[in-house]
Amino acid sequence: MRIAVIGAAGRMGKYLIQATAEAEGVTLGAAILRPGSSLVGADAGEIAGVGKLGVAAVDSIQACAEDFDVLIDFTPPGLTIQNATACAQLGKAVVIGTTGLSDEEKNQLNALAEKTSIVFAPNMSVGVNLTLKLLAMAAEILGDDYDVEIVEAHHRHKVDSPSGTALRMGEVVAEALGRDLNECAVYGREGKIGPRTQKEIGFETIRAGDVVGDHSVWFATEGERIEIVHKASSRMTFAKGAVRAAAWLEGKKSGLFDMQDVLNLK
Ligand SMILES: NC(=O)C1=CN([C@@H]2O[C@H](COP(=O)(O)OP(=O)(O)OC[C@H]3O[C@@H](n4cnc5c(N)ncnc54)[C@H](OP(=O)(O)O)[C@@H]3O)[C@@H](O)[C@H]2O)C=CC1
Ligand SMILES: O=C(O)C1=N[C@H](C(=O)O)C[C@H](O)C1
Questions:
Q1: Which residues hold NAD(+) (predicted)?
Q2: Cα 16 from Cα 9, distance rounded (Å)
Q3: Rounded to the nearest whole angstrom, what is the distance from the C-alpha of residue 162 to the centroid of ligand 1?
Q4: Which of 145, 212, 244, 250 to pair with 25, CA 20 to 30 A apart?
Q5: Mean pLDDT across the chain, nearest whole number?
């Protein structure tokens, strides 16, 4: 599979270029930058800080349409939808790591997945995807007597809250407990909030410094507390997962998948 990375100079973009260059069975076909970027024409490997790779960065999907089979996209939500629409028209597969999509944008991806194959996941790391399984198991065993609280911490540049991973963790726990997250989620408590209700699932957000991504899920009752914790220490773990997802899409004509499909965890 020939991979194109869009948002190539971004925090994730650079790791995605490196991970693609280092992976077996895939090649870097293209690197795409914001139109007008001063880096257009520069070597993708040099943008990523890994030395020349022989791929000159371009400023649009159309400019490299002949050079790739699957696009990896970690960009803002509105742009992600535009990119996925272009890929569906061109018959290209897409791996999407972008978080913070609205329900309407998620519906748009669902519709696009009838025309092309898409992996869409808020966290591409193996560790987080295993953690999702552990959370479902914990919630099923512990049941309603344990209060569930989800705490996430990320770097100061992150623009969405709670993180996509925290929300997915909430969805997994809510489903295992027979709840609808839309009805039981409580975000960022403040003021005279009164006692906790039994079935709420709380979310707390920390934004500080250069934290790559920490998630902690509490199951707490009278007398004990379990914490299931995942800490990412390098963005390379997300990049490797995204490249694995891109390779996994080979031969898949259409459909919306997530990392649980890629890792065979369903
Ligand atoms: N699923 C997962 O495993 C993970 C998901 N994420 C998610 O990925 C997303 C990106 O995160 P991160 O890399 O930290 O963010 P960055 O802001 O570093 O990267 C976003 C990239 O998108 C580019 N971009 C923005 N607007 C445009 C535009 N109009 N045209 C072309 N390119 C554009 C930016 O270009 P420029 O550099 O010119 O501004 C930048 O390169 C977030 O939603 C984050 O939550 C992050 C890590 C892991
Ligand atoms: O923005 C980030 O950095 C990250 N975003 C993802 C999320 O919102 O869950 C995944 C990871 O934790 C890093």
A1: 7-12, 97-99, 121-124
A2: 10
A3: 17
A4: 212
A5: 98
